[in-house]
Amino acid sequence: MGYRGNIGILMIILFIAIVIFINRFINIEHNDLPIYNPIDFNPELVDFSKQGQHTDHTVAYFSLINQNGDTVTNLDYRDKIYVADFFFTRCPSICPIMTNNMNKLQGLFMNDKEIKLLSLSVTPEMDSVPILQEYASKNGAVQSKWNITTGDKKHIYELARKSFFAAVDEGDGGFQDFIHTPNFVLVDKRKQIRGIYNGTLDEEIKRLIRDIKTLKAE
């Protein structure tokens, strides 16, 4: 084989390599986010009634009370992409970091009507509306963007365990029951879970922001 033949082969190899690189780049940049079902989670995070389910999981109906005493339901998040977390106002450890990061998300997406935030108190018996109102004011929460909520404890804990898969331990939402999780949960417009993030870590928040933008482009 002559010199020209070798050059030709090298050019073909180079061309194939470039095509592969471009395809990988495109796949990375435009990769669809997974849709999470119960089977995709650590079984410890999944209520026994949901274990093994591998399709069609969506966040269940919810009815909560926000910082201004207004009822908040799924209808307020219809056709929205939203981030949910579980916190309590007296938490001295991870919750202030999580709340600060929710505030960052609020600022970044303030003018984006497709994006909302939802915080659910895990000590609703203590976090009354006046307390939540003070907490929301202190942390700059804007109700049209970020609902900080209380409500029936059993309802909230069932949401955490059966809808958002944010709690490892089991319980019935009773007086002695308590959950504490750093997870931020990304939910799409069809009420499907599309991502789980550690709400205390900057790199995870950056990943969450990228994933929100990916969802908007779907």
Automatic annotation (TrEMBL):
Q: Which Pfam families match?
A: SCO1-SenC (PF02630)
Tell me the InterPro entries matching this sequence: SCO1/SenC, Thioredoxin-like_sf, Thioredoxin_domain
Domain Thioredoxin as annotated: residue spans: 53-217
Tell me yes or no: is Transmembrane helix among this UniProt entry's keywords.
yes
Keywords, ordered alphabetically: Copper, Membrane, Transmembrane, Transmembrane helix
Q: Could you tell me the superkingdom of the organism this chain comes from?
A: Bacteria
- The UniProt transmembrane annotation reads 7-26
Q: What family is this?
A: Belongs to the SCO1/2 family.
Q: Please give the name of this protein.
A: SCO family protein
Q: What is the lineage of its organism?
A: Bacteria, Pseudomonadati, Bacteroidota, Flavobacteriia, Flavobacteriales
